[in-house]
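Replying to the earlier thread about multi-chain prediction with a worked example.

Input:
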Amino acid sequence: MFLKENIILAISGLRSNKMRAFLTMLGIIIGIGSVIAIVSIGDAVTNNVSDTMAGLGANNIYVYVAPNENDSIYGQMDGSGTQKMDDSDLLTIEQIERVQKKFSNEISDVAIYESAGSGKAQDGHLYANVSIYGANPGFGSVQNVDVQRGRFLQDRDINGSRRVAVVSDKLVSNMFEEGTDPLGKKINVDTADGVNTYTIVGVYKYVQQGMAGMGMGVADKDITTTMYIPVTVAKETSENQNYSTFEIKLKHVNDTHAFTDRIEAYMKHLYENNPKYTCTAYNMENMLSSVTSMMGTISIAIAAIAAIALIVGGIGVMNIMLVSVTERTREIGTRKALGARSSYIRMQFIVESVIICVIGGIIGIITGIGLAAAGVALLKMKLVISLPVIFISVGFSMLIGIFFGYYPAKKASQLDPIEALRYE
Amino acid sequence: MSRKIIEMHSIVKNYYIGTPNELHILKDISLEVEEGDFVSIVGASGSGKSTLMNMIGVLDRPTSGEYVLDGIPIRKMNDNQLSDVRNKKIGFVFQTFNLIPRNNALKNVELPMLYAGVERKKRLERAKELLTLVGMGDRMDHQPNELSGGQKQRVAIARALANDPAILLADEPTGALDSSTGRLVMDLFHKVHEQDGKTIVLITHNPELAEETNRVVTLHDGMIVDDRPGSGKAAE
Ligand SMILES: Nc1ncnc2c1ncn2[C@@H]1O[C@H](COP(=O)(O)OP(=O)(O)O)[C@@H](O)[C@H]1O
Ligand SMILES: [Mg+2]
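Result:
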């Protein structure tokens, strides 16, 4: 009913009192703005996490030994919950190989690894920070190590416990002059256990991993990169000879979930008689869904706060609409005398309330995107603007306008024309 | 000139402000107005003139009595029907002008046609024509707060004529104006009456203005105490 005229009328009314219009909209602006900001930042974080995880191999399965949570007595024995695992609790290389054989139709490769601490490769004033990883040949394929020169670790390196290393291109550029062939070169690595010498057999391309910004404040040449050595070499200085974890790459990516369950059942069976420990399997999808569900929880909390802001905002709108009805009592009386039906008057005020809320909502969306852009820039992530969220916000603003405008509009429409005309 | 526009029989209006205080504002009013007549209603303040006008303009329902407006009995009408009757049959002119704020003269004149569902082009055309008729052709885009009292009342008269109503109902239209501006507004009523043959009911305090009309009805304490022809247009 006279929608266009009512919209024009409502806008000209708002323009005639801009400050009041702005204050009326403030609650809506804050409510919608915070929703948009939080949702956009949440999307950016989720995207970033899933990108990172895809980089790590979203379809890989991680198997690890963990304290038996079902058995609270053992979990609490030493108070801290961090119990010492000894070799009898860990997985032997034979057990891992048996898994690989048993599921050879599904498993493409298995990675085993052992952290051997961090250190510094040094040659005179040249240096490079490294974290040292003992790995098996399968690790290269499981973790998609991008070897550009030479080769990754091989069985003979493992079996012979050879002092060889696969290093990053970053280390090479730190340690050697440009144009030097690093393959076959020896590097001295200073660690907590003393200085060890390794021969470089391969160079891989370094990719920054994890959250962007993790290297914040660190000079490029000080960035720590991973150096891979045979896992058997790493084990020489390790307390345990067995393994607490390994990682599986699948031949077919579509059955990750089902296979994770099968592996877990198989591994749990091995630990049936171990009261303290069990063995579990999970994949990145599980983890991604747990990140997503965490984001979901945060979003619900924020949504609750935003809902409160919107309700408060809506009440503010209703309050101003009631004031507006009172102020315009005579106008309403005149309109009725000129032949406006009650429903026309009601429509006029609902449209006005909706316009206030939608304009507030649009300002809120713009503010929210601005805030999100700032937040995302701070986190060094990419801004994702979700169109559905914007449409839902506009729609929701309209609903608030209708809901909180209805009562004042009804009140206006029910005014007795004579009383309204007499109103001083 | 025999068709009756207003036929009121034994109209009573009471206000109940809590028993036993019943206020009898209109007591047994019977009034007939013929098409094309120019009637004035006079009476002391509080005698019930505005209440009678609200009754004629179907803004209010009588406590009892029959009212037939332009052949339509209004007793059984619902609120929407009454709105439509006001929209098409009645043209109100108020003492306080009552232009819609922030709507320019043109928009104000368009409003009754908007409610009547007249299409935009026709509305504009008619509104311009009416504003020109009342001598406001050069101020069509002025806001109400940019107009003088006399100008506002002329816009209001144009607005009242928008849907070509059966009656022009004016409640002390010159009451808020100085006498010379009031004179101009009164002349406009005469012009509308003479040119269009419009039926006009004018409520006024001013006996001189009342004498200019065809018929003077005097109200006293809610009753018609005198009903006679006007003595003609006063000294020109
Ligand atoms: N809503 C109402 N309740 C009670 N009394 C009313 C109401 N409206 C009008 N009146 C009374 O009715 C009488 C006539 O009023 P009105 O028609 O406005 O007189 P006039 O226009 O002749 O001055 C007055 O005494 C006024 O106080
Ligand atoms: Mg009066």
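Chain B has one domain: 35-61+76-229.

Feel free to reuse this layout for your own posts.
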